[in-house]
Design brief:
Elements (H helix, E strand, L loop, with lengths): L8 H14 L3 E4 L4 H8 L5 E6 L8 H13 L4 E5 L2 H4 L4 H17 L3 E5 L5 E4 L19 E4 L10 H13 L4 E3 L10 H10 L5 E6 L5 H10 L5 E4 L4 E14 L3 E8 L3 E7 L18 E7 L5 E10 L2 H4 L2 H17 L7 H15 L5 H15 L18 E5 L4 E4 L14 H10 L2 H5 L5 H19 L12
Parallel strand pairs: 1-2, 2-3, 3-4, 4-7, 7-8, 8-9, 12-14
Antiparallel strand pairs: 5-6, 10-11, 10-13, 11-12, 13-14, 15-16
The chain binds zinc ion (ZN).
Length: about 475
Protein backbone atom coordinates (compact mmCIF):
# COMPACT_ATOMS: atom_id res chain seq x y z
CA UNK A 1 0.00 0.00 0.00
CA UNK A 2 1.57 3.23 -1.17
CA UNK A 3 -0.59 5.62 0.74
CA UNK A 4 1.97 7.91 2.30
CA UNK A 5 0.74 11.48 2.00
CA UNK A 6 3.88 12.61 0.22
CA UNK A 7 4.54 9.61 -2.01
CA UNK A 8 6.26 10.78 -5.21
CA UNK A 9 5.74 9.47 -8.78
CA UNK A 10 9.24 7.95 -8.87
CA UNK A 11 8.57 6.15 -5.58
CA UNK A 12 5.38 4.72 -7.10
CA UNK A 13 7.38 3.53 -10.13
CA UNK A 14 10.08 1.97 -7.94
CA UNK A 15 7.59 0.27 -5.63
CA UNK A 16 5.53 -1.12 -8.52
CA UNK A 17 8.65 -2.50 -10.17
CA UNK A 18 9.64 -4.23 -6.95
CA UNK A 19 6.07 -5.53 -6.49
CA UNK A 20 6.31 -7.15 -9.93
CA UNK A 21 9.76 -8.52 -9.11
CA UNK A 22 8.76 -9.99 -5.75
CA UNK A 23 5.44 -11.36 -6.98
CA UNK A 24 3.07 -9.28 -4.81
CA UNK A 25 -0.62 -9.73 -5.59
CA UNK A 26 -1.50 -6.06 -5.60
CA UNK A 27 -0.41 -2.48 -5.05
CA UNK A 28 -2.74 0.06 -3.49
CA UNK A 29 -2.24 3.65 -4.62
CA UNK A 30 -3.99 7.01 -4.61
CA UNK A 31 -6.31 7.58 -7.62
CA UNK A 32 -3.83 10.14 -9.00
CA UNK A 33 -1.11 7.46 -9.08
CA UNK A 34 -3.23 4.83 -10.86
CA UNK A 35 -2.00 5.67 -14.40
CA UNK A 36 1.68 5.31 -13.48
CA UNK A 37 1.03 2.21 -11.33
CA UNK A 38 -0.91 0.64 -14.22
CA UNK A 39 1.94 1.42 -16.61
CA UNK A 40 4.61 0.08 -14.23
CA UNK A 41 2.74 -3.18 -13.57
CA UNK A 42 1.35 -3.63 -17.10
CA UNK A 43 1.52 -7.21 -18.37
CA UNK A 44 2.21 -8.55 -14.86
CA UNK A 45 -0.26 -10.30 -12.53
CA UNK A 46 -0.03 -7.40 -10.05
CA UNK A 47 -3.46 -5.84 -9.46
CA UNK A 48 -3.66 -2.07 -9.22
CA UNK A 49 -5.94 -1.03 -6.36
CA UNK A 50 -7.16 2.57 -6.16
CA UNK A 51 -7.85 3.93 -2.69
CA UNK A 52 -10.88 6.05 -3.55
CA UNK A 53 -13.01 8.14 -1.24
CA UNK A 54 -15.52 6.13 0.69
CA UNK A 55 -19.15 6.81 1.49
CA UNK A 56 -19.43 9.93 3.55
CA UNK A 57 -22.72 11.34 4.79
CA UNK A 58 -21.32 14.90 4.76
CA UNK A 59 -20.37 14.75 1.08
CA UNK A 60 -22.44 14.23 -2.02
CA UNK A 61 -22.06 10.76 -3.53
CA UNK A 62 -21.44 12.00 -7.07
CA UNK A 63 -17.82 13.21 -6.73
CA UNK A 64 -17.00 9.89 -5.08
CA UNK A 65 -18.53 7.95 -7.97
CA UNK A 66 -16.77 10.14 -10.55
CA UNK A 67 -13.45 9.52 -8.83
CA UNK A 68 -14.11 5.78 -8.92
CA UNK A 69 -14.99 5.89 -12.64
CA UNK A 70 -11.81 7.80 -13.46
CA UNK A 71 -9.67 5.37 -11.45
CA UNK A 72 -11.21 2.42 -13.29
CA UNK A 73 -10.63 4.10 -16.66
CA UNK A 74 -7.01 4.71 -15.69
CA UNK A 75 -6.45 1.01 -15.02
CA UNK A 76 -7.51 0.24 -11.44
CA UNK A 77 -8.79 -3.37 -11.12
CA UNK A 78 -9.87 -3.00 -7.49
CA UNK A 79 -11.29 -0.09 -5.55
CA UNK A 80 -10.42 0.20 -1.87
CA UNK A 81 -13.03 2.14 0.05
CA UNK A 82 -12.79 3.17 3.67
CA UNK A 83 -15.93 2.34 5.58
CA UNK A 84 -16.07 3.48 9.17
CA UNK A 85 -17.66 0.66 11.23
CA UNK A 86 -18.88 3.18 13.81
CA UNK A 87 -20.64 5.23 11.12
CA UNK A 88 -22.14 2.40 9.12
CA UNK A 89 -23.64 0.94 12.27
CA UNK A 90 -24.94 4.34 13.38
CA UNK A 91 -27.82 6.47 12.31
CA UNK A 92 -26.34 7.14 8.86
CA UNK A 93 -26.21 3.44 8.04
CA UNK A 94 -28.87 3.51 5.31
CA UNK A 95 -27.31 6.46 3.48
CA UNK A 96 -23.78 5.01 3.63
CA UNK A 97 -24.97 1.59 2.46
CA UNK A 98 -26.80 3.24 -0.46
CA UNK A 99 -23.60 5.08 -1.50
CA UNK A 100 -21.55 1.89 -1.26
CA UNK A 101 -24.13 0.03 -3.36
CA UNK A 102 -23.87 2.70 -6.08
CA UNK A 103 -20.07 2.41 -6.04
CA UNK A 104 -20.20 -1.39 -6.27
CA UNK A 105 -22.61 -1.21 -9.24
CA UNK A 106 -20.19 1.04 -11.16
CA UNK A 107 -17.23 -1.21 -10.33
CA UNK A 108 -18.95 -4.51 -11.07
CA UNK A 109 -20.16 -3.26 -14.44
CA UNK A 110 -16.50 -2.94 -15.40
CA UNK A 111 -15.45 -6.24 -13.79
CA UNK A 112 -13.72 -4.36 -10.97
CA UNK A 113 -13.79 -5.61 -7.37
CA UNK A 114 -14.53 -3.48 -4.33
CA UNK A 115 -12.59 -3.85 -1.08
CA UNK A 116 -14.33 -2.43 1.94
CA UNK A 117 -11.61 -1.21 4.28
CA UNK A 118 -13.14 -1.22 7.73
CA UNK A 119 -11.70 1.91 9.23
CA UNK A 120 -12.44 5.61 9.42
CA UNK A 121 -11.69 7.41 6.14
CA UNK A 122 -8.21 8.84 5.77
CA UNK A 123 -7.91 12.56 5.56
CA UNK A 124 -4.88 14.63 4.86
CA UNK A 125 -4.08 17.78 6.71
CA UNK A 126 -1.16 20.11 6.95
CA UNK A 127 1.07 18.77 9.68
CA UNK A 128 1.90 21.55 12.08
CA UNK A 129 2.26 19.88 15.46
CA UNK A 130 5.53 18.25 16.49
CA UNK A 131 5.50 14.61 15.32
CA UNK A 132 5.41 13.21 18.86
CA UNK A 133 2.37 15.34 19.71
CA UNK A 134 0.47 14.63 16.54
CA UNK A 135 -2.03 11.78 16.85
CA UNK A 136 -0.51 9.74 14.04
CA UNK A 137 1.56 6.75 13.28
CA UNK A 138 5.12 8.06 12.84
CA UNK A 139 5.76 5.84 9.84
CA UNK A 140 3.30 7.80 7.78
CA UNK A 141 4.34 11.27 8.80
CA UNK A 142 5.57 12.65 5.53
CA UNK A 143 8.60 14.86 5.30
CA UNK A 144 6.72 17.32 3.15
CA UNK A 145 4.59 18.76 5.90
CA UNK A 146 1.65 16.48 5.30
CA UNK A 147 0.39 13.88 7.67
CA UNK A 148 -2.56 11.70 8.39
CA UNK A 149 -5.17 13.16 10.61
CA UNK A 150 -7.45 10.90 12.45
CA UNK A 151 -11.10 11.33 11.64
CA UNK A 152 -13.17 11.02 14.75
CA UNK A 153 -11.92 10.10 18.17
CA UNK A 154 -8.29 8.88 18.33
CA UNK A 155 -9.28 5.84 20.37
CA UNK A 156 -11.90 4.82 17.82
CA UNK A 157 -10.54 1.38 17.11
CA UNK A 158 -13.55 -0.80 16.32
CA UNK A 159 -14.27 -3.92 18.34
CA UNK A 160 -14.38 -7.37 16.75
CA UNK A 161 -18.18 -7.34 16.94
CA UNK A 162 -18.41 -3.96 15.24
CA UNK A 163 -16.00 -5.12 12.53
CA UNK A 164 -18.03 -8.26 11.90
CA UNK A 165 -21.31 -6.35 11.76
CA UNK A 166 -19.92 -3.63 9.49
CA UNK A 167 -18.37 -6.34 7.32
CA UNK A 168 -21.74 -8.04 6.87
CA UNK A 169 -23.37 -4.73 5.84
CA UNK A 170 -20.53 -4.07 3.37
CA UNK A 171 -20.97 -7.50 1.80
CA UNK A 172 -24.74 -6.95 1.53
CA UNK A 173 -24.03 -3.67 -0.26
CA UNK A 174 -21.87 -5.56 -2.75
CA UNK A 175 -18.29 -5.44 -1.42
CA UNK A 176 -16.15 -8.33 -2.71
CA UNK A 177 -13.33 -8.21 -0.18
CA UNK A 178 -13.04 -6.99 3.39
CA UNK A 179 -9.85 -5.46 4.71
CA UNK A 180 -9.23 -4.76 8.38
CA UNK A 181 -7.74 -1.32 7.75
CA UNK A 182 -5.17 0.67 5.83
CA UNK A 183 -2.51 -0.15 8.42
CA UNK A 184 -1.98 3.51 9.09
CA UNK A 185 -2.95 3.18 12.74
CA UNK A 186 -1.37 -0.13 13.43
CA UNK A 187 -1.61 -3.65 12.21
CA UNK A 188 -4.49 -6.04 12.40
CA UNK A 189 -4.92 -8.30 15.41
CA UNK A 190 -5.83 -11.97 15.14
CA UNK A 191 -9.24 -11.14 16.67
CA UNK A 192 -9.99 -8.47 14.07
CA UNK A 193 -9.13 -10.77 11.16
CA UNK A 194 -11.15 -13.64 12.66
CA UNK A 195 -14.14 -11.33 13.06
CA UNK A 196 -13.92 -10.15 9.47
CA UNK A 197 -13.46 -13.69 8.20
CA UNK A 198 -16.56 -14.85 10.09
CA UNK A 199 -18.58 -12.02 8.53
CA UNK A 200 -17.77 -13.17 5.00
CA UNK A 201 -19.29 -15.79 2.76
CA UNK A 202 -16.51 -18.18 1.80
CA UNK A 203 -16.12 -16.85 -1.74
CA UNK A 204 -15.11 -13.43 -0.41
CA UNK A 205 -11.54 -12.72 0.63
CA UNK A 206 -10.51 -11.33 4.01
CA UNK A 207 -7.39 -9.19 4.05
CA UNK A 208 -5.40 -8.59 7.21
CA UNK A 209 -2.95 -5.73 7.43
CA UNK A 210 0.56 -5.69 8.85
CA UNK A 211 3.02 -2.85 9.15
CA UNK A 212 5.86 -4.52 7.28
CA UNK A 213 9.45 -5.11 8.28
CA UNK A 214 11.36 -8.28 9.07
CA UNK A 215 9.67 -9.00 12.41
CA UNK A 216 6.31 -8.86 10.69
CA UNK A 217 6.88 -12.01 8.65
CA UNK A 218 5.65 -13.97 11.66
CA UNK A 219 2.66 -11.69 12.13
CA UNK A 220 1.73 -12.30 8.50
CA UNK A 221 1.96 -16.07 8.94
CA UNK A 222 -0.25 -15.89 12.03
CA UNK A 223 -2.91 -13.90 10.20
CA UNK A 224 -2.91 -16.36 7.31
CA UNK A 225 -2.74 -19.61 9.25
CA UNK A 226 -4.40 -18.91 12.56
CA UNK A 227 -6.88 -16.11 11.86
CA UNK A 228 -8.13 -17.19 8.46
CA UNK A 229 -6.88 -14.25 6.44
CA UNK A 230 -6.85 -14.95 2.71
CA UNK A 231 -4.30 -12.25 2.04
CA UNK A 232 -2.07 -9.93 3.95
CA UNK A 233 -1.51 -6.31 3.02
CA UNK A 234 1.61 -4.40 4.01
CA UNK A 235 1.75 -0.69 4.63
CA UNK A 236 4.32 0.67 2.22
CA UNK A 237 6.81 -2.20 2.59
CA UNK A 238 9.57 -0.06 1.16
CA UNK A 239 9.47 2.40 4.03
CA UNK A 240 11.73 1.62 6.96
CA UNK A 241 13.14 3.28 10.04
CA UNK A 242 16.71 3.08 11.25
CA UNK A 243 19.15 4.73 13.54
CA UNK A 244 22.34 5.74 11.81
CA UNK A 245 25.55 7.74 11.95
CA UNK A 246 26.37 9.92 8.94
CA UNK A 247 29.74 8.80 7.56
CA UNK A 248 30.06 11.19 4.63
CA UNK A 249 27.98 13.06 2.09
CA UNK A 250 28.50 14.14 -1.47
CA UNK A 251 26.66 16.31 -3.97
CA UNK A 252 24.10 14.97 -6.39
CA UNK A 253 22.77 17.28 -9.12
CA UNK A 254 21.76 20.82 -8.26
CA UNK A 255 20.10 20.52 -4.91
CA UNK A 256 20.45 16.96 -3.63
CA UNK A 257 23.06 15.14 -1.66
CA UNK A 258 23.93 11.49 -1.26
CA UNK A 259 24.37 10.58 2.37
CA UNK A 260 26.37 7.51 3.38
CA UNK A 261 25.30 6.20 6.77
CA UNK A 262 26.13 3.35 9.06
CA UNK A 263 22.84 1.92 10.35
CA UNK A 264 22.21 -0.80 12.89
CA UNK A 265 19.90 -3.03 10.90
CA UNK A 266 20.90 -2.34 7.30
CA UNK A 267 24.64 -1.81 7.66
CA UNK A 268 26.01 0.78 5.29
CA UNK A 269 23.27 2.68 3.49
CA UNK A 270 23.63 5.15 0.66
CA UNK A 271 20.58 7.38 0.48
CA UNK A 272 19.46 10.54 -1.27
CA UNK A 273 18.47 13.61 0.73
CA UNK A 274 16.39 15.53 -1.78
CA UNK A 275 16.60 19.29 -1.75
CA UNK A 276 19.05 19.23 1.16
CA UNK A 277 21.25 21.90 -0.43
CA UNK A 278 18.43 24.40 -0.80
CA UNK A 279 18.48 27.13 1.83
CA UNK A 280 15.05 26.20 3.14
CA UNK A 281 15.60 22.44 3.20
CA UNK A 282 13.43 20.48 5.59
CA UNK A 283 16.54 18.49 6.58
CA UNK A 284 18.39 21.62 7.76
CA UNK A 285 21.88 20.71 8.92
CA UNK A 286 20.85 17.38 10.37
CA UNK A 287 22.64 15.21 7.83
CA UNK A 288 26.25 16.26 8.50
CA UNK A 289 29.05 13.74 9.14
CA UNK A 290 29.13 12.46 12.78
CA UNK A 291 25.42 13.11 13.38
CA UNK A 292 23.63 10.26 15.14
CA UNK A 293 20.18 10.33 13.58
CA UNK A 294 16.85 8.56 13.56
CA UNK A 295 15.69 8.17 9.95
CA UNK A 296 12.73 7.19 7.87
CA UNK A 297 13.87 5.84 4.54
CA UNK A 298 12.23 4.66 1.41
CA UNK A 299 13.91 1.67 -0.20
CA UNK A 300 14.71 2.47 -3.81
CA UNK A 301 16.19 0.31 -6.54
CA UNK A 302 19.55 2.08 -6.71
CA UNK A 303 19.56 4.46 -3.77
CA UNK A 304 17.31 4.76 -0.76
CA UNK A 305 15.49 8.04 -0.22
CA UNK A 306 15.50 9.81 3.12
CA UNK A 307 12.04 11.06 3.99
CA UNK A 308 12.54 12.16 7.57
CA UNK A 309 15.39 12.83 10.00
CA UNK A 310 15.54 13.49 13.72
CA UNK A 311 18.85 14.12 15.43
CA UNK A 312 19.60 11.81 18.36
CA UNK A 313 23.01 13.37 19.10
CA UNK A 314 24.79 16.03 17.02
CA UNK A 315 28.14 15.56 18.92
CA UNK A 316 28.45 19.33 19.09
CA UNK A 317 31.65 19.49 21.16
CA UNK A 318 33.42 17.05 18.88
CA UNK A 319 32.71 19.38 15.95
CA UNK A 320 34.17 22.41 17.70
CA UNK A 321 37.65 20.99 18.08
CA UNK A 322 40.04 20.34 15.22
CA UNK A 323 41.90 17.41 16.81
CA UNK A 324 38.66 15.65 17.68
CA UNK A 325 37.22 16.24 14.22
CA UNK A 326 40.30 14.71 12.61
CA UNK A 327 40.30 11.70 14.95
CA UNK A 328 36.54 11.26 14.39
CA UNK A 329 36.96 11.52 10.63
CA UNK A 330 39.47 8.66 10.71
CA UNK A 331 36.91 6.59 12.65
CA UNK A 332 34.21 7.29 10.05
CA UNK A 333 36.63 6.42 7.26
CA UNK A 334 37.57 3.08 8.83
CA UNK A 335 33.89 2.19 9.40
CA UNK A 336 33.11 3.14 5.82
CA UNK A 337 35.75 0.60 4.76
CA UNK A 338 34.63 -2.33 6.90
CA UNK A 339 30.81 -2.02 6.89
CA UNK A 340 28.88 -3.87 4.19
CA UNK A 341 25.70 -2.66 2.54
CA UNK A 342 22.49 -4.41 3.63
CA UNK A 343 24.25 -6.36 6.35
CA UNK A 344 23.27 -5.63 9.96
CA UNK A 345 26.07 -3.90 11.85
CA UNK A 346 24.73 -3.52 15.35
CA UNK A 347 28.05 -3.99 17.16
CA UNK A 348 30.01 -1.72 14.86
CA UNK A 349 27.26 0.88 15.16
CA UNK A 350 27.32 0.75 18.97
CA UNK A 351 31.12 0.91 19.04
CA UNK A 352 31.11 3.93 16.73
CA UNK A 353 28.50 5.77 18.80
CA UNK A 354 30.46 5.07 22.01
CA UNK A 355 33.67 6.31 20.41
CA UNK A 356 32.04 9.49 19.10
CA UNK A 357 30.57 10.05 22.55
CA UNK A 358 34.05 9.66 24.08
CA UNK A 359 35.41 12.23 21.62
CA UNK A 360 32.45 14.52 22.36
CA UNK A 361 33.25 14.31 26.08
CA UNK A 362 36.57 15.72 27.15
CA UNK A 363 39.22 13.21 26.05
CA UNK A 364 42.79 13.75 27.27
CA UNK A 365 44.07 12.81 23.83
CA UNK A 366 41.69 12.29 20.87
CA UNK A 367 44.37 10.33 18.99
CA UNK A 368 44.46 7.71 21.78
CA UNK A 369 40.66 7.32 21.61
CA UNK A 370 41.02 6.78 17.87
CA UNK A 371 43.65 4.06 18.34
CA UNK A 372 41.53 2.28 20.94
CA UNK A 373 38.56 2.45 18.58
CA UNK A 374 40.54 1.03 15.66
CA UNK A 375 41.86 -1.91 17.71
CA UNK A 376 38.32 -2.73 18.88
CA UNK A 377 36.98 -2.37 15.36
CA UNK A 378 39.61 -4.85 14.12
CA UNK A 379 38.63 -7.24 16.91
CA UNK A 380 34.95 -7.01 15.88
CA UNK A 381 35.98 -7.78 12.31
CA UNK A 382 37.73 -10.96 13.45
CA UNK A 383 41.26 -9.55 13.57
CA UNK A 384 41.86 -9.26 17.28
CA UNK A 385 45.62 -8.74 17.72
CA UNK A 386 47.42 -11.02 20.21
CA UNK A 387 48.91 -8.70 22.83
CA UNK A 388 48.98 -10.62 26.11
CA UNK A 389 51.52 -13.21 24.99
CA UNK A 390 53.84 -13.74 22.07
CA UNK A 391 51.77 -14.18 18.90
CA UNK A 392 54.33 -16.64 17.50
CA UNK A 393 55.33 -18.89 20.42
CA UNK A 394 52.67 -18.09 23.02
CA UNK A 395 55.18 -17.38 25.81
CA UNK A 396 54.46 -14.69 28.40
CA UNK A 397 57.82 -13.04 27.87
CA UNK A 398 58.58 -9.36 27.51
CA UNK A 399 57.03 -8.26 24.23
CA UNK A 400 59.12 -5.67 22.43
CA UNK A 401 58.04 -6.13 18.80
CA UNK A 402 54.86 -6.31 16.73
CA UNK A 403 54.05 -7.98 13.44
CA UNK A 404 50.78 -7.43 11.58
CA UNK A 405 51.49 -10.46 9.41
CA UNK A 406 52.02 -12.73 12.43
CA UNK A 407 48.95 -11.33 14.22
CA UNK A 408 50.33 -9.49 17.23
CA UNK A 409 53.18 -8.83 19.66
CA UNK A 410 56.41 -10.83 19.59
CA UNK A 411 58.98 -11.87 22.18
CA UNK A 412 62.71 -11.29 21.74
CA UNK A 413 63.43 -14.80 20.41
CA UNK A 414 60.58 -14.70 17.85
CA UNK A 415 61.42 -11.20 16.63
CA UNK A 416 63.36 -11.34 13.38
CA UNK A 417 64.99 -8.60 11.34
CA UNK A 418 61.74 -7.21 9.95
CA UNK A 419 60.31 -5.86 13.21
CA UNK A 420 61.81 -2.90 15.01
CA UNK A 421 62.52 -2.96 18.74
CA UNK A 422 59.70 -1.22 20.59
CA UNK A 423 59.66 0.83 23.77
CA UNK A 424 58.80 -1.40 26.79
CA UNK A 425 55.57 0.61 27.27
CA UNK A 426 54.19 0.21 23.75
CA UNK A 427 52.67 -3.30 23.81
CA UNK A 428 51.18 -2.79 27.31
CA UNK A 429 49.60 0.44 26.02
CA UNK A 430 48.11 -1.36 23.01
CA UNK A 431 46.82 -4.08 25.30
CA UNK A 432 45.25 -1.45 27.59
CA UNK A 433 43.55 0.32 24.66
CA UNK A 434 42.16 -2.94 23.28
CA UNK A 435 40.99 -4.30 26.63
CA UNK A 436 39.59 -1.29 28.48
CA UNK A 437 36.46 0.59 27.50
CA UNK A 438 36.60 3.80 25.51
CA UNK A 439 36.05 6.03 28.54
CA UNK A 440 39.27 4.60 30.00
CA UNK A 441 41.04 5.31 26.72
CA UNK A 442 39.70 8.86 26.80
CA UNK A 443 41.25 9.32 30.26
CA UNK A 444 44.63 7.89 29.21
CA UNK A 445 47.65 10.15 28.66
CA UNK A 446 50.47 7.80 27.66
CA UNK A 447 54.17 8.62 27.48
CA UNK A 448 55.24 10.13 24.17
CA UNK A 449 57.44 7.27 22.91
CA UNK A 450 54.87 4.53 23.56
CA UNK A 451 52.06 6.68 22.20
CA UNK A 452 53.91 7.35 18.94
CA UNK A 453 54.96 3.73 18.45
CA UNK A 454 51.51 2.43 19.30
CA UNK A 455 50.04 4.74 16.63
CA UNK A 456 52.43 3.31 14.03
CA UNK A 457 51.51 -0.24 15.05
CA UNK A 458 47.76 0.49 14.87
CA UNK A 459 48.05 2.19 11.50
CA UNK A 460 50.06 -0.61 9.92
CA UNK A 461 47.81 -3.28 11.48
CA UNK A 462 44.58 -1.66 10.23
CA UNK A 463 45.97 -0.96 6.77
CA UNK A 464 47.30 -4.52 6.53
CA UNK A 465 43.84 -5.99 7.20
CA UNK A 466 41.81 -3.43 5.24
CA UNK A 467 44.34 -3.67 2.44
CA UNK A 468 44.21 0.07 1.89
CA UNK A 469 45.50 3.34 3.34
CA UNK A 470 43.61 5.29 5.97
CA UNK A 471 43.81 8.71 4.35
CA UNK A 472 42.80 10.78 7.34
CA UNK A 473 45.01 8.93 9.85
CA UNK A 474 48.25 10.87 9.08
CA UNK A 475 46.36 14.15 9.68
CA UNK A 476 45.80 13.25 13.34
CA UNK A 477 47.90 15.44 15.61
CA UNK A 478 50.46 13.34 17.54
ZN1 LIG B 1 57.81 -15.75 20.99
Amino acid sequence: MLLRPDVTPSEVDDACASAVESGLAAVTVWPADVPSAAAATGGSPVTVVAAVSGPDRTAAAYPMLDEARRAIQAGARHLAVALDPRAILGEDAAELARQLQALCRIAHAEGVHVRAVLQAPLALAAHTAAPQQAPLAPAVVGGGGLAWMRVGAPEASPSATELAEAGRLAVEAGADLLQTGFGVWGRATLEQVRAVRRALPSRHAAIGVIAGGAEDANAARHLLERAGADRVAVLDPSLYREQGVVLRTYKLGEADRIVVLLTQGEGKVRAVAKGVRKTKSRFGGRLEPFSHVDLSLYRGRELDIITQVEVVDPFRFLRDDYDRVVAGTAMLEAVDQVAQEREAAVRIFLLLVRALRALDGDPRDPAVVLDAFLLKLMALEGYRPVLAECAACGRHAELRAFSAVRGGALCASCRNGGESLLDPGTVPLLSHLLGEDLDQAAATQPRAAARREAANVVKSYVEYHLDRRLRSYPLVNR
